[in-house]
């Protein structure tokens, strides 16, 4: 038997197969044969556990009533400072390093999500299933980012990319085993759902980065600000629960964070918009500092304050960047709509009966716990940027870039000859 056949045709021992089947049977029996008395017993246990959670007549899980909240607050604060410090350092290093950071985050997110449906007995009988999942992951990464590495402007499917996907499909078919079909097809579907979720948002994120670091940094910063101030306002003032999916979220934290985020968006856009290396788009894969002519969005314009401003206010006129008005829309989305990505993640975790997706960040959980709102925000930022800000008109630079990228030398010479003939005729 060849080495490939050994790796694909690995068989579990009869004892391992019986243990897996026994575990499945016990799980099915526990789900199916729940008598009314059993359900009643479960309800009583739930009531008793909820009664034990009542401390000093307060059954609420809100942070304002948590006895250990200051300890968790300090742990969370230290982790936040380290994350923000690392984030600022990577942003300062430039486009390619930010893109690399996005790729690393993708890998950690995929690892946490892959582990949600892992079952030790089944994985022991299917030793290659983890490698197959990661093969799908890196094939999708090659497919999504291959056009960026090759500097292609059109999302094309090359022969190599198609071959990788075909090998993945064949590998999966060859590893199917009797009595493991349901688990294997479940893993197959789960893996592709993860790829869709992870790579959809990250491709938009990378596109925003190359349009200018500003369009990545501002939306990401607004989500960070919203998360921080939602926690602070809920920590000190939270009294009214916001949503059952996330019991620690409060209306006070939601409203306080919304106001803070919208105000921060207006002033942050003014600060970031004055740095050319943040606003210039990146057209290649170089790592040098960018220099470009400032876009009209980032050129200050005088703005006269409305008449209802009190007379004691010292300024009657101020300089405003046009992009600051767009930043208000981003701030509004980051404070009102993007948190629903966090609510979705909370419901997802409840479905799997877990507290966090991982434990890689002390006080925060896993990487996925920090990226739930960022995923929604990145998609919106890209759509808003392409719909209302980026010019869709065709320019000479874009046409020349397409010619140099997609045409061979002979085709370029033929095009040059034809253009010369057309100009000569005119």
UniProtKB/TrEMBL annotation:
PROSITE patterns xref list: CDS
InterPro entries attached to this UniProt entry: PC_trans (IPR000374), PC_Trfase_euk (IPR016720)
Stretches that traverse the bilayer: 81-110, 131-149, 188-207, 213-238, 250-269, 325-345
Transferase as UniProt keyword: yes
Keyword Transmembrane helix assigned: yes
Enzyme Commission code: 2.7.7.41
Protein localization: Membrane
Functional pathway: Lipid metabolism; Phospholipid metabolism; CDP-diacylglycerol biosynthesis; CDP-diacylglycerol from sn-glycerol 3-phosphate: step 3/3
Keywords for the protein's UniProt record, in alphabetical order: Lipid biosynthesis, Lipid metabolism, Membrane, Nucleotidyltransferase, Phospholipid biosynthesis, Phospholipid metabolism, Transferase, Transmembrane, Transmembrane helix
Region (Disordered), start-end ranges: 19-55
Main location: membrane
Co-factor remark: Requires a divalent cation for activity.
Cofactor: Mg(2+)
Catalysed transformations (reactions): a 1,2-diacyl-sn-glycero-3-phosphate + CTP + H(+) = a CDP-1,2-diacyl-sn-glycerol + diphosphate
Topology with respect to the bilayer: Multi-pass membrane protein
PANTHER family to which the protein is assigned, alphabetical: PHOSPHATIDATE CYTIDYLYLTRANSFERASE
Role of this protein: May be involved in the synthesis of minor phospholipids and in modulation of IP3-mediated signal transduction.
Family: Belongs to the CDS family.
Protein's recorded name: Phosphatidate cytidylyltransferase
Species: Brassica napus
């Amino acid at each position: 038997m060849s080495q490939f056949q050994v790796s694909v045709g690995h068989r579990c021992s009869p004892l391992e197969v019986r243990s897996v089947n026994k575990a499945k049977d016990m799980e099915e029996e526990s789900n199916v044969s729940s008598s009314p008395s059993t359900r009643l017993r479960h309800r009583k246990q739930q009531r008793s556990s909820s009664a034990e959670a009542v401390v000093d007549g307060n059954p609420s899980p809100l942070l304002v009533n948590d006895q250990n909240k200051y300890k968790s607050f300090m742990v969370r604060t230290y982790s936040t400072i380290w994350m923000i410090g690392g984030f600022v350092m990577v942003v300062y290093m430039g486009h390619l390093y930010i893109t690399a950071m996005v790729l690393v985050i993708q890998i950690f997110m995929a690892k946490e999500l892959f582990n949600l449906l892992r079952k030790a007995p089944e994985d022991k009988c299917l030793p290659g299933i983890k490698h197959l999942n990661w093969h799908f992951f890196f094939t999708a990464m090659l497919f999504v980012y291959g056009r960026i590495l090759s500097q292609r402007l059109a999302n094309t499917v090359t022969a190599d990319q198609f071959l990788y996907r075909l090998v993945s499909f064949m590998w999966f078919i060859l590893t199917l085993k009797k009595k493991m079909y349901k688990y294997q097809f479940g893993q197959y579907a789960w893996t592709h759902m993860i790829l869709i979720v992870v790579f959809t948002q990250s491709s938009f994120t990378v596109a925003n980065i190359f349009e200018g670091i500003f369009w990545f940094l501002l939306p990401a910063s607004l989500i960070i600000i919203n998360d921080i101030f939602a926690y602070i306002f809920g920590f000190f003032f939270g009294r009214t629960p916001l949503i059952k999916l996330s019991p620690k979220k409060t209306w006070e934290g939601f409203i306080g964070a919304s106001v803070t985020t919208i105000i921060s968006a207006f002033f942050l856009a003014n600060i970031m918009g004055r740095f050319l290396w943040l606003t210039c788009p990146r057209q290649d894969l170089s790592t040098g500092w960018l220099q470009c002519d400032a876009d009209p969005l980032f050129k200050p314009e005088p703005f006269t304050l409305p008449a209802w401003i009190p007379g004691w206010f010292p300024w009657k006129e101020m300089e405003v960047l046009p992009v600051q008005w767009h930043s208000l829309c981003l701030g509004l989305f980051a404070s009102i709509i993007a948190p629903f990505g966090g609510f979705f993640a909370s419901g997802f975790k409840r479905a799997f009966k877990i507290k966090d997706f991982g434990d890689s960040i002390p006080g925060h959980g896993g990487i996925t716990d920090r990226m739930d709102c960022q995923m929604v925000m990145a998609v919106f930022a890209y759509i808003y940027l392409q719909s209302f800000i980026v010019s869709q008109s065709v320019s000479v630079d874009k046409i020349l870039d397409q010619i140099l990228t997609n045409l061979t030398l002979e085709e370029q010479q033929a095009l040059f000859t034809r253009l010369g003939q057309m100009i000569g005729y005119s």
